[in-house]
Design a protein that fits this description.
heterodimer; A: mainly beta; six-stranded mixed sheet; 11 strands; B: mainly beta; seven-stranded mixed sheet; globular
């Protein structure tokens, strides 16, 4: 069975600083991996996804993530945080079905 | 294209009642999935429907049920509500052929008193 672990339920950064949100997965076969963002009182918005091919994936709003099979990781990064990035971020995994398995989420705070 | 819409956005019920939530997918999407989001359990998969058939099911009691209509709109029903059913219920739709890309609606916030 597949699962996802997000290290750090809260991450705080200063505006302009690097954002790094960690995600490790467990899967017996190559997974599909996703990062979603959730703003208060809203649904989830897809930031980026890895299915096959290039392991460095670029998403919306300047975010990117790298699939590292040897480390079973899919960490999300952004070079320079913006106040508007404050939200909750979820890593998710699936094995080519519509059943997404989500991590517990990381709340990102951005300070001026 | 209009996004995924869910109605109602907010709902208050009492224990023992039943509730029906509605989801209209993005036009052309035939797959609809439902998720429950709570502070304690996080985001959990409920079920997925494709062409009016339940294709996948999560680990929830039988009080939780769903259906999909021929126009791909979906409903989920929770009977005999419990306090623990208070949650944000999210619906997501997927385009045929790219079934791993799910688009989420804003959710229905259910409060059980």
């Amino acid at each position: 069975a597949q699962s996802v672990t997000q290290l750090g339920s809260h991450v705080s950064v200063s505006e302009g600083a690097l954002v790094l949100l960690r995600c490790n997965y467990s899967s017996s076969v190559p997974p599909y991996l996703f990062w979603y963002v959730q703003y208060p009182n809203q649904g989830l918005q897809l930031l980026l996804k890895y299915t096959t091919g290039a392991t460095l994936v670029k998403g919306i709003n300047g975010f990117e993530a790298e699939f590292k099979k040897s480390e079973t990781s899919f960490h999300l990064t952004k070079p320079s945080a913006h106040m508007s990035d404050a939200a909750e971020y979820f890593c998710a995994v699936t094995l080519n079905t519509d059943k997404l398995i989500f991590g517990t989420g990381t709340r990102l705070q951005v300070f001026p | 294209k209009a996004g995924v819409t869910q109605t109602p956005r907010y709902l208050i019920k009492t224990r023992g009642q039943q509730v029906t939530l509605s989801c209209s997918p993005i036009s052309g999407h035939r797959s609809v999935s439902w998720y429950q989001q709570t502070p304690g359990q996080g985001l959990q998969f409920l079920f997925e429907y494709f062409s009016e058939t339940q294709r996948n099911k999560g680990n929830f009691p039988g009080r939780f049920s769903g259906r999909q209509f021929s126009n791909s709109r979906s409903e989920m029903n929770v009977s005999t509500l419990e306090l623990g059913d208070s949650a944000l219920y999210l619906c997501a739709s997927s385009p045929e052929g790219r079934k791993n890309e799910q688009f989420f609606g804003p959710g229905t916030r259910l409060t059980v008193l």
